[in-house]
Amino acid sequence: MSEDQKTVYLSALFAGGSAALVVDLTLFPLDTLSTRLQSARGFFKTGGFKHVYKGIGPKIIGSAPEAALFFLTYESFKYYVEPRVDSNVLPLVHMTAATISEIVGCLIGAPVEVVKQRRQTSTNTKHTSLRIFMHAVKSEGLIKGLYRGYGSMLIQEIPFSLIQFPVLEYLKKVYRVSFKNDVPLDSWDVANCGSVAAAFAAIATTPLDVAKTRVMLADKKIATDTIRTVLKQIYNEKGFKGLFAGFTPRVMLATIGAYVFFGTYDLSKNFCNDYLLNPDPTVNW
């Protein structure tokens, strides 16, 4: 393994995990409110504004390795493919990289999301994350219980990434050429680009996120329904408004979260490259 490859792999792992932890700790309440708004039982019956950090345990445990795995895949794909293709097809490269990365990352993310969302919407104080996890495995099996939302999660996450990452890469390129005289962007510049890209993606994919939440929170019978069936059911029950339940906190979470995430990611990546992988002997720690 060359030094360049080592740098790409390790910096992606370190930066992805660091950024995920920062976002989870700071913005988890918005995620809880969004989940409760999308629940079929209703916002107040699933907890309302109370205990908005319920479910953060499994999220913290799972989100760091999920993000690390995602960006390891994403950055590696870019590293090997970008130099070998024409610049005109770079958006397709980024879309492909994002899709493959979601498929890999959701292997960790899906079980975490099932446990987290059930914890967020449970009003029983005895329903700890561990008990929810064990109940899902015992009553439905490891795959059906914890991966029931894997397909619906991919259906929601892949379109999100298909929009977010090509837009992010495009904005970074335009920002660098137009405002930075073609010098590397600062971390806050990357954060700005990330927040705009995430806002577009969040608006477009909210109905899919609502359907994913319904599937993950549903009983066994409803959990076998397809995304199309769930979307149709939601529309028949609550109309167009129902498809965009939790729209405001979701877009807020995506926008603010992306600003924090991509800013932290770039900062952590630079720190890893400059000080951990290639330490400067003149710096006194």
From TrEMBL:
<dbReference type="GO" id="GO:0016020">
    <property type="term" value="C:membrane"/>
</dbReference>
<dbReference type="InterPro" id="IPR023395">
    <property type="entry name" value="MCP_dom_sf"/>
</dbReference>
<keyword id="KW-0812">Transmembrane</keyword>
<dbReference type="InterPro" id="IPR018108">
    <property type="entry name" value="MCP_transmembrane"/>
</dbReference>
<dbReference type="GO" id="GO:0055085">
    <property type="term" value="P:transmembrane transport"/>
</dbReference>
<feature type="repeat" description="Solcar">
    <location>
        <begin position="89"/>
        <end position="174"/>
    </location>
</feature>
<feature type="repeat" description="Solcar">
    <location>
        <begin position="185"/>
        <end position="271"/>
    </location>
</feature>
<keyword id="KW-0813">Transport</keyword>
<feature type="transmembrane region" description="Helical">
    <location>
        <begin position="7"/>
        <end position="30"/>
    </location>
</feature>
<feature type="repeat" description="Solcar">
    <location>
        <begin position="7"/>
        <end position="80"/>
    </location>
</feature>
<comment type="similarity">
    <text>Belongs to the mitochondrial carrier (TC 2.A.29) family.</text>
</comment>
<dbReference type="Pfam" id="PF00153">
    <property type="entry name" value="Mito_carr"/>
</dbReference>
<keyword id="KW-0677">Repeat</keyword>
<dbReference type="InterPro" id="IPR002067">
    <property type="entry name" value="MCP"/>
</dbReference>
<keyword id="KW-1133">Transmembrane helix</keyword>
<keyword id="KW-0472">Membrane</keyword>
<protein>
    <recommendedName>
        <fullName>S-adenosylmethionine mitochondrial carrier protein</fullName>
    </recommendedName>
</protein>
